Amino acid sequence: MSTPINASTRYYRRGITKVLWLPAVANKSAPTRSEINAGTALEGETGAMAGWQTTSGTVPTPALGSRFTPVVGGEITAADSSLTFWASKDGDDVRTLLVREATGFIVWMDEGDVAGQTMDVYPVTVTSQAKVRELDQAAQIMAQFAITSEPAENVTIPA
């Protein structure tokens, strides 16, 4: 009999997940606690997020000797990604931190900032700060990002 997959401990993301802006990381596959502590925690002002995942394409590898066309793994791409923040009436909000063309790293700690758990580290450039204008909604700023190289996924969070 096959061994079953471990049962998950399911959780509700709000109040647990941490998202950070780190201005500098020497090695995206192993950010240090000092680099993490030098960053800015964004989750307290984050109202929405989109993207922040990688996908892999496939490449067909046909052979004349078979009607079946197998595939192999191909390019790795990242979805267009954004974070939407609450705007402040006095303008003292994310617009002063995530300015257009700023480069750094967005770090996702899905299960919280817990040593030994994992995080994803996305090297990014801020591409825009769009003002979200809705009639019956609180004011928001959407920061859009270009993911500039392959993210480091499932990196162990240091103590």
Name some characteristics of this structure.
8-stranded antiparallel beta sheet; two-stranded antiparallel ribbon
Helical amount among residues, as a percent range?
under 10%
| Oligomer description | single chain
Order of helices and strands: EHEEEEEEEEE
The rounded Rg comes to 19 Å
Total number of helical segments? 1
Query: Based on helices, strands and strand pairing, what is the structural class?
Result: mainly beta
Shape: globular
Proportion of residues in extended strands: 35-45%
Largest β sheet strand count, sense and barrel closure:
8 strands, antiparallel
Number of strand elements: 10
Poorly predicted sequence stretches spanning 5 or more consecutive residues: none
Termini separation: 39 Å
Q: Mean pLDDT, as a whole number?
A: 96
Can you offer a commentary on this structure?
With 159 residues, this protein is mostly beta strands. It contains one helix and ten strands. β8 and β9 form a beta hairpin. The N and C termini lie far apart (39 Å). The relative contact order is 0.24. The model has no long low-confidence stretch (mean pLDDT 96).
